[in-house]
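Hi V.,

You were right to ask for the full record rather than a summary. Here it is.
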Amino acid sequence: MNVVVLISGRGSNLEAIAKACREGKINGRIKLVISNRKGAPGLEVARGFGIPAEFHNPSEFSSKEDYDRHLIKE
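Predicted structure:
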């Protein structure tokens, strides 16, 4: 199963998920990490696991719903 993880902070949950995937406890692979905060430390956590990590700016969308639709497409 391919997984996209959404973060906004340190990435502690991301780290736990990535470790569980690596250890086979979760039958999946994190394909992408997206943050709504440009400088979120979790982006570097993702990169440390070799996972592509991106910032998607919510202020570029006219509403939270538009931003959420964008995330779903990603």
